[in-house]
Amino acid sequence: MTLFEALKFNREPLEMLIKLGIKQDDVRYIDLYSEFEAMKSRGEKTTYAVLYLANKYSVCERKVYDLIKRFGKRCTFGAV
User: Which domain of life is it from (predicted)?
Assistant: First the structure.
């Protein structure tokens, strides 16, 4: 399968995700956010969770805070 064929096959879901405001690299951080939610549900402080996840996933703390904010928002069409 070529890249074009993959894009053509997945066109509708991709267009919907773009309209919802997804960024190209968001898929890389699904596990990070899932782990953040698990840590919060166990009662961990946000600051500790951010520091731990930034170190574990080799990203800066600001990136983790940005992901938490973006991933936690309700999806609305046209959100960019």
Answer: Bacteria
Tokens standing for residue 70: 């973006």
Structural domain includes residue 80? no
26 is a domain residue: yes
Number of domains in the chain: 1
| pTM (2 d.p.) | 0.82
If you ran DSSP here, which 8-state letter would residue 28 be given? G
User: What single DSSP character describes residue 27?
Assistant: G
- Full pLDDT tens readout for the chain, 80 residues: 999 999 999 999 999 988 888 888 999 999 999 999 999 999 999 999 999 999 999 999 999 999 999 999 887 766 55
Residue 25 amino acid letter? D
Residue indicated by tokens 């166990």 = 42
Decide if 77 is inside a domain: no
